[in-house]
Specification:
The complex is a heterodimer.
Chain A lengths: L3 E6 L2 E6 L4 H7 L23 E4 L6 E2 L10 E3 L3 H15 L8 H9 L24 E3 L9 H6 L10 E3 L6 E3 L16 H5 L5 E3 H7 L4 H17 L1
Chain B lengths: L8 H5 L10 H12 L4 H11 L3 H10 L11 E6 L2 H5 L2 H12 L5 E2 L13 E6 L11 E3 L2 E7 L4 E5 L5 E3 L15 H4 L3 H7 L3 H11 L11 H10 L6 E6 L8 H8 L1 H15 L3 E6 L7 H13 L8 E6 L9 H8 L23 E5 H13 L1 H4 L10 E8 L5 E6 L4 H7 L7 E4 L5 E3 L10 H7 L7 E5 L5 H15 L5 H18 L7 H15 L3 H5 L2 H9 L10
Parallel strand pairs in B: 1-3, 7-13, 8-9, 8-11, 9-10, 12-16
Antiparallel strand pairs in B: 1-4, 2-3, 4-5, 5-6, 12-13, 14-15, 14-16
Helix pairs in contact in B: 2-3, 3-4, 8-12, 8-15, 9-10, 9-12, 11-12, 12-15, 19-20, 20-21
């Protein structure tokens, strides 16, 4: 058993185990802090900064998914600074990528009054859909770089290391070794990356084809046909 | 193109195999030196030899600006276009070079090919600050510095960049201003020998009493770092010299390392004794390749004299073009063979640093202060400076002054006194502290150059940058270049900086081009404050510093309706 400590979140006294993050501590008293990159199955890296909160005595906003609750802490989860940061991050995301299949983020934008038109003439990430394997598609125009796919492919789950990053800064993308196709990579098609993708950037091919209007029968014929051709080849 | 011959590669890679993942950057440097660039088969061999996943190898190549995954010219011409060089005609120089060779910046000449190597002749690219600001405009030509380039007369200096040292005292720069000081001329490591006779705790107490704080930009008390690492558990500890000097306008560490490498090495030896480290690294920025042999030679001298190689030794690691690696945790990642992503703090380096072990990391100038303090003692050291800012300080003066150069003065002189020495009679603004700094105006002339006075004036001392702009300069152009710099150098890890630096650069571009949009000023503020408040590391937290400071000091530059 870890020690219990008491802190103050938005004026409420909260008593939690001392190894809890501020995010979890807030959850215990029903205070909802938004998250984007956080996932229960992956290591928290504090990338999206949407979960930042104001902690008294700290000069900078603190990522609540990482910072541990401390005795006597005074935390504000919706201060003016917090709201400005969250709203601006959301608006910047909308100016960068295709959020059409990210309903949670669109809802967040609504809640924070964030406008998708805030940054006119911004250079967007527009990347051609990669359709190079029978299992899943990669549409990196929808990728918000939460790193989850890279993490589950590596030390957080599969130890396959098929994907990593290319580029740097705003030009960062998820990529394979010299942009090889997925079948040419070390991918074992475990599907975990697709499972943790929050934005539809990684999508099962079947789901994509259904959305494209193909019937389940047509898809079955198509994929079995592919197998036959492979055998004949 | 001719087939790439992989047979020499095994021998090239052999020395790095025992290093494992940590050998990745040195291995890539060595492979690139041989082949000119890093092709897919070469990168795959590197990954196999060092047992690193290929996707990770590619990720590292892609992160660092000085690694190339396509053929580049045998002659690499990197033209600095950051503010100090821009003032001296860097854009015209770049245009001239490009039109002469009929290529655009970032391109490689299509021919002639060297058939044996399969390599094109020449690549010309823009470079972030090369740390040659007092000799602007400057170019890195392969591994050599080309400085004081004059398009009119066609003259320039090539090779070891000459050091230009001024000021009122010669403490840290005692051995600077000429050729590299050999160990013979440097003399014995008397401060180190004195420290070895002291208890480690007493060495730390001496540094603490002297009031030494970091000179890299963050001004953190050096003794607190040392104490933390000394008290941390474990017997594997590291001392690192941060020589990734990349802050635009900064060149002090270049001069110190090139002219007087033994001061830094002796400082590291004392730090190692104080914390109980067996291994040290000097992480040298990739844009200073000409310092590498100087350091290697000095380390050999120190080993032969018995100062190194016994209980403590030092290895030099060369960066590969990434400003972010000056951030201490990103620097650890880089030595570990990874992309230079900064880590979340806490835990701090003193307990969880390089390879997760207790680590002290200090800037070059900070380490150069250490032998002085130990040798002279605190009382003598404190005769220079003020109570809260003790000792000597280096300032990197560049831009519109008669005598740009490295100035060593005691803390406590005024900005006016420094500028008078540099031959600056009037100015519009000074970029103070670096790209991550703020603007000073003539109103600040009587501010004393100390940590406490500058803080009160809202000016960060940073890395000691004093970049002067006269009344004729358009500060919006300066801001545009700073914006581009941060967008280029953001690592892309956290969203505020990854996207914010890009949006900031776009808005600054519009302001310079007179195409400012309604709402741009508010956008710039929101982006700036979000980066400042919510970014993961110091890069993002200061990426809007100069812009926000310019908005405060020069609001007329940011008028939406006035264009």
């Amino acid at each position: 058993m870890t020690d219990e400590i008491t802190l103050n979140i938005d004026g409420q006294e909260v008593t939690v185990e001392s190894d809890k993050t501020l995010l979890d501590a807030a959850k215990e008293v029903g205070i909802d802090i938004p998250t984007i990159c956080w996932h229960e199955a992956t290591t928290s890296n504090g990338l999206c900064r949407i979960c930042v909160v104001e902690v008294e005595g700290q000069r900078l906003l603190q990522p609540s998914c990482i910072v541990r609750a401390g005795a006597g802490m005074k935390v504000r989860t919706r201060s003016e600074r917090v709201v400005r940061a969250r709203k601006t991050i959301l608006e910047m995301l909308a100016s960068t990528m295709d959020l059409s299949e990210s309903p949670e983020i669109l809802e967040m934008m609504n809640e924070y009054g964030a406008s998708s038109e805030r940054f006119p003439d911004a250079e967007r990430r527009e990347i051609e859909v990669k359709d190079d394997n029978p299992m899943y598609l990669r549409d990196y125009s929808k990728c918000l770089l939460c790193w989850r796919c890279v993490q589950v492919c590596a030390d957080d789950a599969q130890y396959t290391y098929a994907i990593n990053f290319s580029g740097r800064g705003y030009e960062t993308e998820i990529g394979t070794f010299f942009d090889r196709t997925i079948p040419e990579s070390t991918c074992v098609f475990c599907g975990q990356c697709v499972g943790v993708c929050p934005t539809g950037a990684l999508k099962p091919k079947r789901e994509f084809l259904l959305e494209e209007g193909m019937s389940p029968e047509e898809i079955t014929v198509m994929s079995s046909g592919r197998k036959q051709r492979k055998k004949m080849g | 193109m001719s087939e790439i011959d992989l047979t020499p590669l095994q021998n090239i890679l052999n020395p790095y195999i025992p290093l494992g993942r940590s050998g990745l950057l040195p291995a890539l440097h060595a492979a690139q030196k041989h082949y000119g660039w890093l092709s897919q088969p070469v990168a795959a061999e590197v990954g196999k030899a060092l047992n690193i996943p290929l996707a990770d190898v590619h990720g590292v190549i892609e992160f660092y600006s000085l690694f190339y995954n396509e053929p580049v010219g045998e002659k690499m011409i990197r033209v600095c276009t950051d503010p100090a060089c821009a003032l001296k005609g860097a854009d015209e120089l770049l245009d001239h070079l490009c039109s002469h060779h009929k290529i655009e910046p970032g391109q490689t000449t299509p021919d002639p090919f060297d058939q044996a190597q399969g390599r094109p002749a020449r690549t010309i690219e823009r470079s972030p600050c090369l740390g040659l600001c007092e000799q602007a405009p400057a170019v890195l030509f392969n591994d050599e510095a080309e400085t004081n380039i004059d398009l009119q007369t066609g003259t320039y200096e090539l090779g070891r960049p000459p050091s230009v040292v001024y000021g009122t005292i010669r403490e840290l720069t005692k051995n600077c201003g000429g050729e590299t000081t050999s160990l013979n001329n440097y003399g014995k490591y008397t401060a180190f020998m004195k420290a070895q006779k002291m208890q480690p705790a007493d060495v730390i107490a001496e540094i603490k009493a002297a009031g030494l704080v970091g000179r890299g930009g963050a001004a953190f008390p050096t003794a607190i770092k040392w104490e933390g690492a000394a008290n941390a558990e474990g017997d594997e500890k590291y001392v690192i010299c941060n020589a990734d000097e990349s802050e635009p306008g900064t060149f002090k560490d270049r001069v110190l390392l090139l002219d007087d490498p033994h001061s830094t090495i002796e400082g590291m030896c004392i730090a190692a004794h104080a914390i109980g480290a067996k291994k040290g690294y000097i992480y040298l920025r990739g844009e200073y390749p000409y310092i590498l042999p100087v350091l290697e030679n000095a380390l050999t001298e120190a080993r032969e004299a018995g100062y190194l190689g016994g209980t403590f030794d030092i290895e030099v690691r060369l960066g590969a073009g990434a400003y972010i690696c000056g951030e201490e945790t990103a620097l650890f990642e880089s030595i570990e063979g990874k992309r230079g992503f900064p880590r979340i703090k806490p835990p701090f380096p003193t307990t969880h640093g390089l390879f997760g072990k207790p680590t002290v990391i200090n800037n070059v100038e900070t380490l150069c202060n250490v032998p002085h303090i130990i040798e002279k003692g605190t009382d003598e050291y404190r005769k220079l400076g003020t109570e809260k800012s003790s000792g000597p300080k280096l300032f990197c003066v560049s831009g519109d002054v008669e005598k740009p150069g490295l100035y060593e003065i005691p803390f406590g002189m005024t900005l006016r006194e420094l500028l008078e020495m540099a031959g600056c009679e009037s100015f519009q603004a000074i970029l103070f502290g670096g790209a991550a700094g703020a603007f000073a105006t003539p109103e600040h002339l009587d501010v004393k150059l100390t940590f406490e006075d500058l803080r009160e004036a809202g000016l960060p001392l940073g890395s000691g940058v004093v970049m002067v702009f006269d009344e004729t300069r358009d500060l919006r152009d300066v801001l545009k270049r700073l914006g581009k710099f941060f967008a280029h150098e953001s690592c892309g890890k956290c969203y505020p900086c990854q996207i914010g630096t890009q949006r900031q650069a776009e808005i600054l571009d519009r302001i310079v081009d007179g195409k400012i949009k309604v709402g741009d000023i508010e956008r710039l503020k929101d982006v700036g404050w979000t980066m400042t408040d919510a970014s993961l590391c110091g890069l993002g937290q200061t990426a809007a510093s100069a812009v926000l400071s310019a908005m405060k000091e020069f609001p007329d530059l940011f008028v939406e309706s006035g264009k």
